[in-house]
Write a structure and sequence with these properties.
single chain; alpha+beta; Serine Threonine Protein Phosphatase 5, Tetratricopeptide repeat; disordered N terminus
Length: about 600
């Protein structure tokens, strides 16, 4: 009897221990919700403190307590409290057996020591004050140089106008004297000569007036350019002060220029877009914010299958953003598993495959749609595609569940997700990993390509459909067509010197058709290494008062871009994506004429990336 009682008490104790551990985890999750979701930092600190106190009483996990201590320091730093430093130091002193959490605390501690003062309420894109000052100085210097250049151009036009006026004056003075002489003469010959001279004088005066008007137009254009530069400067200053972005060359596996945030550990991987090597149309708006729950398991099979079902209630889970590592969202040092869940509304056609493309998941991704197993991917630095045709509801809401396991360093869904259907006849099994497709690295190229790329027979197919890099959350406000109008135009010149071909009213119906997303050599223009124009009409539905950007995945080599006949910017560099602010030129509601002048000097040419 005593043995039975002992076993019963042991079971009770184990059950109670499990309940306590579950309660501590729920408290930690609630603290994260207060910090990340509600922004209630003081309440978050109180809940994190409860997690630490529970561990001190022998309840809960030491790693969770260490993370709670770290999050308290982060909250204090956001509140501008100086004791954030002592809190970070306590992580190292109290939890020596948690080196990864301690390393993150040391990194944040070093960051606070480098600042002149703790910045009040820093966002996830806020830079240090010294960095912002450097950025402001650089922008002001560039603006000063642009202004001086424009003023020199104005002065040159004014001097040229004065010289022309003086020259015309020298030409008209003798003519005026001849007119006066003929007026004093009464002979018929003198009258005839006088009429000719008067006409010469009138022609000279008309020429003078035309040149004056031309000079005035040039000066007005330069004045408008100055105003645009001023507005652009104001937007740059606002962006720097709000976000602290800067350009930096990152030697990542893709070896491309991206925008790196200043105070996030893994920001140089953030918002990595999927690689989709064929023409497609999106059939769903994938949300950025998902439901999230930490998990200590190695495989999803060890967890309740209810997590993947559509009717599972995840309302008490924390929230997290895809497009960023979970370490940069409050889960430093978590190198185990976690669940992501979201509901995605799909509007897809019957008869065509539906695919889900991932920009990057670190490391192992197990994917379920509507409670059904879809597939897995086990490489942290490769985008991948899954065929979800058999699991997806094509005209309604779908529940997507991901189990992610990370063994070391960065973890989570750091890339973007896209749900789409191909628009061309393409063998998608060559690209979907759950159908046998996979990515390979090009030797020396630094860009991942699908194994079917070289089998296509197209010379530059490995660069085709390269997506833009957009290093921030955004709303898509236009469907950019794949097919554009195309006109080879060999002359090379600066972008804003042809107001005819770039204008919104230009009739391009006689031009050829071409697809963006592929080099022009792979579309019948092999060996053409000169310039060409691309034109398309794009319908925009954007919200007034917010900037509108045009993002390019890749143009080889020089790109000069117009929107509604207005020159909006240029870019040089065949292998780097770029973004242009078109807010001053775009019609926020309605059709917009977009023209791109491309010049290529050798090898591949054209708009080989997507827009």
């Amino acid at each position: 009897m005593a043995r039975v009682t002992a076993i019963f008490l042991s079971c009770v104790l184990l059950t109670a221990s499990g309940l306590l551990a579950s309660s501590v985890e729920e408290t930690y999750q609630a603290a994260l919700t207060q910090e990340k979701g509600e922004g209630n930092l003081k309440e978050a600190i109180r809940l994190y403190q409860q997690v630490i106190e529970a561990h001190e009483k022998g309840e809960g996990d030491e790693k969770m307590a260490a993370r709670a201590q770290l999050r308290i320091g982060v909250c204090q730093e956001k509140l501008g409290l100086a004791q954030a430093r002592q809190t970070y130091e306590a992580v190292r002193d109290k939890y020596p057996d948690q080196p990864q959490v301690g390393a993150e605390a040391a990194r944040r501690l070093g960051s606070t020591h480098q600042r002149e003062a703790v910045i009040e309420q820093p966002s996830h894109r806020t830079a240090s004050e010294s960095y912002i000052r450097r950025q402001l100085q650089q922008v002001m210097e560039r603006a000063k140089q642009q202004k001086e250049l424009t003023e020199r151009q104005l002065e040159a036009i004014q001097r040229q106008t004065e010289r022309q006026m003086e020259k015309l004056k020298q030409l008209t003075e003798p003519t005026k004297r001849r007119v006066e002489q003929t007026e004093r003469s009464t002979s018929a010959d003198s009258a005839f000569i006088g009429e000719q001279v008067r006409r010469q004088l009138e022609a000279a005066q008309q020429q003078m007036e035309q040149q004056m008007k031309q000079a005035e137009r040039q000066m007005e254009a330069l004045q408008r350019q100055l105003e645009r530069q001023q507005k652009q400067l104001e937007r740059q200053l606002e962006t720097i002060q709000r976000q602290g972005f800067h350009f930096e060359w990152i030697r990542s596996p893709r070896s491309e220029r991206i925008i790196r945030g200043s105070d996030q550990h893994y920001y140089h991987y953030a918002y990595t877009p999927p690689v989709i090597p064929y023409a497609y149309e999106e059939v769903a708006e994938v949300p950025v914010q998902w439901k999230f729950r930490l998990d200590e398991s190695r495989y999803p099979q060890q967890q309740p299958t209810a997590y993947v079902t559509p009717d599972f209630d995840d309302s008490d889970w924390a929230t997290i953003h895809i497009g960023q590592a979970w370490e940069d969202q409050g889960y430093e040092g978590h190198d185990e598993g976690a669940w992501y869940r979201a509901r995605i509304k799909v509007d897809a056609e019957e008869g065509r495959p539906v695919l889900m493309a991932f920009g990057g998941v670190d490391k192992d991704a197990y994917v379920y749609v509507n409670g059904q197993w879809v597939g897995l991917h086990l490489v942290w630095d490769r985008p991948f595609i899954l065929d979800i045709s058999d699991q997806v509801v094509r005209d309604g809401e779908n529940t997507v569940a991901l189990f992610v396991y990370d063994g070391v360093n960065m973890g989570g869904v750091y890339g973007l997700i896209n749900v789409h259907q191909p628009t061309d006849e393409v063998e998608t099994d060559n690209f979907a990993v759950n159908r046998g497709g996979h990515l390979e690295m090009v030797e020396g190229g630094g860009w991942p390509v699908f194994k079917d790329h070289f089998a296509s027979g197209k010379r530059y197919s490995r660069y085709a459909h390269r997506p833009p890099r957009i290093p921030y959350a955004y709303n898509k406000v236009a469907e950019v067509p794949v097919q554009w109008k195309f006109y080879p135009y060999p002359e090379e010149y600066q972008g804003d010197q042809d107001p005819i071909l770039s204008s919104a009213d230009f009739d391009d119906t006689d031009w050829a058709d071409i697809d963006i997303g592929q080099a022009w050599e792979d579309q019948g223009y092999e060996g053409y290494d000169e310039g060409a124009w691309y034109r398309a009409w794009i319908e925009v539905d954007a919200e007034e008062g917010r900037p509108v950007h045009l993002a390019f995945g890749g143009v080889d080599n020089n790109a000069y871009v117009y929107v509604n006949g207005i020159f909006v910017g240029e870019h040089y560099g065949w292998n780097t994506p770029f973004i242009l602010d078109i807010s001053e030129a775009v019609k926020y509601k309605g059709q917009n004429a977009v023209a791109v002048r491309v010049y290529d000097g050798m090898n591949m040419g054209g708009i080989y990336g997507t827009i």
